[in-house]
Amino acid sequence: MSGQDRALVQDSTDVRTSLLQLGQLLKNSGYTFVTPTPLTHQRVNERPENALGENLRDAFGWNRFFESGLLNREEEGTLIESGLLQYDGSRLKSAVRWSSLDGLLLVHSAFPTTAEDSVFFGPDTYRFAQSIQRHLASNQQPIKRAVDIGCGTGAGALLIAKANPQAEVLAVDINPAALRLTAINAALAEVANVEVLASDVLQGTEGNFDLIVANPPYMADPAGRAYRHGGGSLGAGLSLRIVEQALNRLAPGGSLLLYTGVAMVDGRDPFFDTVVPRLDSTRFGWTYRELDPDVFGEELLNPGYQRVDRIAVVALTVTRVG
Length: 322
Prior knowledge:
Blueprint: H1 3-9, H2 13-29, H3 38-45, H4 56-60, E1 66-67, H5 73-82, E2 85-88, E3 91-94, E4 96-101, E5 104-109, H6 123-138, E6 145-149, H7 155-163, E7 168-173, H8 176-189, E8 194-198, E9 209-214, H9 237-247, E10 250-265, H10 270-275, E11 284-292, E12 308-320
Parallel strand pairs: 6-7, 6-9, 7-8, 9-10
Antiparallel strand pairs: 1-3, 2-3, 4-5, 10-12, 11-12
Helix pairs in contact: 2-5, 2-8, 6-7
């Protein structure tokens, strides 16, 4: 584990305080950063003129090395002491990244996300957020209890909680680093109705929910990294587990919103073919939409993807009607 990764998983008051102070400093500065795909991030950073960061976006968004003095001496010293800034020779680098999403500022793992327990944020997070917002705008069911499965940065849970301040919203994950960062992000957003909880899918929770959302990993990752590896056939295993567990935990009128990716094989959608027979039409209404027909094309070079045509992003919405 690298020094950056250790800083991310440390569970100490100093680290939490330093992260909150850094987040507040960035918010007060007007900082915004839209996080691109890892490949785009790499290509932009490899440009010769981007070798050294010159501003807060360079340092805490693009995760570039920068010279001491970008922050004032006290702020810099506190972040170095907590491990959130680390020296490489005379240069500094942040152990975390910060991304903006609809008025939220969210901390997550530094680039590149190579550790098994990295907390990922990227274009999928933005699409997932848009799916949640569309559902909230059209949903007529009052939301008293909701849960974000595999919460990562807590983006989904925070969006639901902000829109439904009266609701109890659970943010669950098996990754301790994700739970710690979700708690930081909730505190920074001043959202008080999010409960952060360790749970493997819904096994660590009780009761039914009016809304269940999930943006699980959907790749077949040879390294087995938790934020990428979905398990099962071509990464669909976790998505199927979520559907299986969620269907029996929906309150009357409650909905499951699953945002995931599917490896399309020989013109077929194997996830759709597996899921639809489980959706009893007397109990559930559902919609299934392909949101993006082709993402992460570079993954097709990896073992196991030889027969895959493309990787598509889909949204499955299931509502309990009976």
